[in-house]
Amino acid sequence: MASNAGAIEQNGIPVPEEGTPEYEKMNKMARRAIPLTLIIFTLGILEQQAFGMIFVNIGKQLGTPGLAPLITSIPGIVLGIVCVIYGSLGDFISLKKMTLLGTWIFVAGSIIGFAFGPMNIWAVVIARVLQSAGGQVAGSVFLVLVSKYVSKAARVIYYQIFVAVFRFSAAIGVVLAGYVEAIDWRWLFAAAILAVVFIPALAKNLPDQHAKGARIDGVGFSLIGLFAGAVTMFFTNMNWFWAIASIVTLIAFIVYINKAKHPFITPSFFKNPAFILTMTVIFVGYFFSYTLNAGINAIGLNVFHISSAEVSNMLVWSILVAAVLGFCGPLIKKMGRTASIILALSFMGLGLIAIAFAIPYGKVAALAIAPCIYYFGTSFFYSPIVDTATLTVSAQESGRVLGLNDLIQAITGSIGVALFGNMMASGAMSGGSVAGVKAGQAATYANVFLVGGVIVLAALAIYIIFHKVIYSRAPKETK
To answer: Where's the Major facilitator superfamily (MFS) profile domain (predicted)?
Structure first.
């Protein structure tokens, strides 16, 4: 056993101080493990974005277009929940065991998808759930490794790399989805099986320290997951069973958090107007987030009659805009939270509306240029709205707020894609559009994007109207 001299404890785990021999040893291990975790994380994001792009194609091929949004929505809910869980577990349990288990789950999902996905849409959903749950471990472990075993001066560089990898992985996923779908989309699953190659190196270089004391509210997370799943299923096929299930699970969750000793979210959060309003802005603002790529793909396939490969070649430039602007932190800091959030939501909402009005002007305008407006806005939204959320509670509760932010983003995007995906598949609102599109499928897509744009602009209105309440608990200089 290595000596713990010169170490401090975080939740019972000794963490060596910078400059000590033990720190140098752990830093060396971390620098070897970090690129490996980034590779696994890259594969996970690639899979998420790729299947989010072509679930419409998969649904048609398997004869279940109405259920196709579940390929994105259900894994999205799971992803939101595990983000909160993993962030907590990383402070208590062995990073080695956590990463190895997650990687094996990721690989298992990939194998299931490759072997059984073409047979049944539920096999695709299950495979994507396992990929989402397993692949996210690498991202969470990356952040823990950096926060504990990388020097303070170098951490900001690693965090910027993390954001850049996320954005560029998304771009690669969109491009790859378009080309692979033209051959056989199950090869997307096969590509992710490569993660197994990195398991021996991860086992060798990851820390194996652990401590007692982790409190994971399994009941609370299960209830909120069941509620989100029931709501998603209701918006997918609109039947009474899922409506009743949504009400029952919501009531059970409310009762539970009022009775439990250590719920992951306490009733006091819901008595905090600043917190509730900020979460509302996040919920409404991200409602269309999972729908955009799939909607663009559907327009390309059914309006302009081009392949998903050609669609991805056009859409990828929008995502690259967001990737490059991911480094605009200094600009956001100079602008301030309020100006950045107003700019972000304005461009996000207007970008969706622009896509609807661009359809009559051709595929380049609708699939390449207009989406850039939306993605430009997203680059200015995440950081300031998360900072705003942490200001609504005490410093001791900020960790839970960060986790809840991830959870709400996943839930709202999942509900949105289930609702809008079903509308696009069923041809709703096809009688014509104020965007100048004739009746038919084009009208459906135009109207879906118009509704999405109005919803995002509603988030902007909520933010502006309740601005004073949202920042009522924040220091004046941070508003």
So the answer is: 28-470
